[in-house]
UniProtKB/TrEMBL annotation:
It is an enzyme of class 3 (hydrolase). It comes from the Bacteria. It holds the Pfam family Phage_lysozyme. One of its GO terms (molecular function) is lysozyme activity. The lineage of its organism: Bacteria, Pseudomonadati, Pseudomonadota, Gammaproteobacteria, Oceanospirillales. This is Lysozyme.
Length: 168
């Protein structure tokens, strides 16, 4: 049997990541402010290139998502020092896409993963459900659901799901 090429594995991780991110981010062809006031467009795309009043086509939004998620996967591959299965790479790319490179690189999650403690690393995902700052910080139910799903995918193959974690 021929072993999979790194490029194929990266493509599979990216495809899985797209399937994760798209429903959780939602799609808006027009710029809007996210729950903490950050200008956002398409599938959660943010950055200095996002301006009020912008509009994008479906094709432009998909291209932005692929580019952004590819960058998130690159961050995962550069930061994680131990080999990870495709499912975990996809879950981590979704996580990085949402929390950002800086937060990921400084996280206990990454530290635990590089120590080889996969269970503790994946469990850390569920702590990242808050938006806002200070007294305005609050848990968002969409993030709670997303982190639970990312955690399940992160643990795939090493931890059988409990009944409350199983998909409906």
């Amino acid at each position: 049997m021929m072993s999979e090429s790194p490029r194929l594995l990266t493509g599979l991780a990216l495809a899985m990541g797209l399937a994760i991110v798209m429903p959780y981010e939602g799609l808006s062809y027009r710029t809007y402010l996210d729950p903490i006031g950050i200008p956002t467009i398409c599938y959660g795309h943010t950055g200095s290139d996002v301006q009020s009043g912008q509009e994008h086509s479906a094709e432009e939004c998909e291209a932005l998502l692929k580019q952004d998620l590819g960058e998130a996967l690159d961050v995962v591959d550069q930061s994680v020092k131990v080999a990870q299965p495709i499912t975990r790479r996809a879950a981590l790319a979704s996580f990085v896409y949402n929390v950002g490179e800086r937060n990921f690189r400084r996280s206990t999650l990454l530290e635990r993963l590089n120590e080889g403690n996969v269970q503790a690393a994946c469990d850390e995902m569920t702590r990242w459900v808050y938006a806002g700052h200070g007294e305005h910080q609050r848990a968002l139910q969409g993030l709670v659901r997303r982190r639970a799903m990312e955690r399940r995918l992160c643990l795939y193959g090493i931890d059988p799901p409990t009944p409350e974690e199983s998909p409906p």
